[in-house]
Amino acid sequence: MSQEPHPDPYPSDTLGMTPEEMRRLAHKVADLVVDRHINRHNEAVIRAGAPDKLLAQLGGKLPEAPGDPDAALDLLANVALTHQQRTDHPRYFARVPGPSSFAAILGDWMGIAFNAAATSWAGGSGPATLEVVVIQWLRALLGMPAEGEGILTSGGSLANQTALVAARICGKDGPAPGRGDETPRGVVFHTEQVHASLLRSLRHLGYAKSQIREIPSDEQFRMPARDLKAAIAELNPDVRKRSIVIASAGTTNTGAIDPLDDIAELCGNDLWLHVDGAYGGAAAACPESRTLFSGIERADSMVVDPHKWLFQPFGLGCTFVRRAGDLEAAFSMYPEYLKDTLSAPGEVAFGNRGPELSRRSRAMKLWMTFKTYGAARIREAIQSGIDQARTAEEILRSKPDVWEVVTPAQIGIITFALKDPTGKLATAEVHEQRAAALAKSGFAVVTSTKLKGQSVLRLCTLNPLTTKSDLEQTIDALADRALLASS
Ligand SMILES: *Cc1c(COP(=O)(O)O)cnc(C)c1O
């Protein structure tokens, strides 16, 4: 590409910035981004501002005249972007960390700056090819069969919704004319550990409460196959064919993985098996934990969220379906008879595979990550997250008078509770207060959750940069009321 300013009659920038200014500001942004990346462990893990203060600094009247882009970038870097959680901080243990890698940032940056879209083949064959490629690479990384198809989405919520739409419209038997529009809905089974976003999607898909059946999880927070079997047995064969089982491959609460092989067996040739691996799917990449995911290859649809445990910045989920053609059957806007004229074999139009038409290319960050670090390094980094939760468990178990481990370390998540001298576990109020005080200190952030009514604290340890000392200091801070009060 030419380094020269574009000759007349076209100015260099749509709205009039000079090439010199563009280059100078782009270098400034590069420095801001790299400085932020290499210093992310030196900043507060989380910081929330007051709405009026933030609005006063960032808002005001609609700017009518040109302004100073340097000052605007400084305001972005020093105000807007310092008031947020740093999910890539080594002591960010809340919800699900997002320890993005730099190669991924570079890829995303390129995609945005080149305005890459993956909608039609003719309009974006390069970006579409990258998307086809990274979906195949993800399958290979996670030990999934090579057949089928997939699509990248903005995250797990939309990836799960995309899969549920395909399940509803195609069903186990595959797409048929009018299916989904005219056939009544079947039943959807899940445990109470299912991610709330799927229940929201089911509501939006028109499922009535009576069509959504919760199967209480067992003591390990997994779906009891026996109970699922009994529930399926109550359905008449016709309803069975239109029904869906949602299994979790790594619940967000505890990392529990439902018995996928048993569930796949029960789904048989009738029920659609959807596996939500948004959180835990990445752990299937590690040989040590692959057996926990046994059966995942039998899923009709499956989701993984690379912006969680695959070192990507926000905005990346992935849906896989086992049968090629199901996504297009569910999402293509074109009538069947036009299809042949639209694309030749291999020419994928992702605008017809999911709910977005104009869609930015999301593949570049993942492609750059695989190309730069390689799968072996990625596996090793995922494994370190699994190991860190075990280290946290050892630290907690070494102080049995202070801590009760409620669920053991499972693919990067551990839950635990404070104990009083009589052995009574702390209430939600106490746990929430401790977690809030720690977050306020800026040192670390953890969240609390509830498991069958019991309040617990929870650590999610996905960041390969986290050290044993980070874990020790965080756990100690949570135990020490005085330490938190003084911070
Ligand atoms: C995070 C998560 C989701 C939702 O994904 P988003 O990327 O936040 O939209 C769904 N399921 C599970 C198990 C998750 O952990």
Written account of the structure:
The protein has 487 residues and is of the alpha/beta class. Helices cover 41% and strands 12% of the residues. It has 18 helices and eleven strands. The chain has helices at 19-38, 51-58, 69-78, 102-113, 121-142, 156-170, 196-204, 225-233, 237-240, 260-267, 287-290, 306-309, 326-331, 339-342, 363-397, 428-441, 468-479, 481-486; strands spanning 149-153, 188-190, 212-214, 244-248, 272-277, 301-304, 317-321, 403-410, 413-418, 447-451, 454-460. The strands form two sheets. The protein has a seven-stranded mixed sheet with strand order 1-7-6-5-4-2-3, with helices on both faces. The chain has a four-stranded antiparallel sheet with strand order 8-9-11-10. Helix 6 packs across helix 7. The protein is globular. The model has no long low-confidence stretch (mean pLDDT 94). Pyridoxal-5'-phosphate binds at residues 96, 155-157, 160, 195, 197, 248, 252, 276, 278-279, 305, 317.
